[in-house]
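EI: anyone free to look at a 203-residue chain?
SC: sure, send it
EI:
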Amino acid sequence: MDRHDPEGRQGPACEEAFGTFPVAVCHEWNTIAHLNDYEGAREAKPFTREQLQLFLDYADDQVERALRAQRKGALAAYRDATLFKVIYGWGLRRTETSKLDVVDFGRNPQARQFGRYGTLNVRYGKAKKGQPPRRRNVLSVMDWAVEAVADYVENVRPRFGFPDHPALWVTERGGPCGPARSTTGSRHTAMPLACRKSWSRTP
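SC: here you go
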């Protein structure tokens, strides 16, 4: 049975219209089996759900550690933890994320529960060669991601002391966090040793 045509209707319809019908050309005997789930470069391997949760938990732990130690860096740690959640929650690239402004979030009439964070206007999407950045709107779908960015914008970002700065991610000196400065470029080196050891056992 074809999983794309469980009721078997496409074959007779195609034969009646075209005098022939589609058949499968890939079988176990003429295809190569995948030995691993991922066969690309190890450093580019996507996170599993478990690894992603470890990563986000670790980022949150850095905020708690800074607060308990009463040392400088708690605001930056909270900013970075939220930044990672935005990357995953809206499926963004590093540069796209670093160039976000506060006003890039907007309302979605079809998702009123998200308030002013129902959509995200990505102004610096990946461009084709010789063309300007591509813009796109991304709908918000994850409650926890919306809650994280709302808490950051409304309660944490104002403590940086630059309310008039347009950038979503600001530094302690009042500048925007560019892709070279953001911690997104060192996601593996920032991981705790326990995470890296567990990942090394993952094929």
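EI: Residues 181-189 have pLDDT under 50 and may be disordered.
SC: 👍
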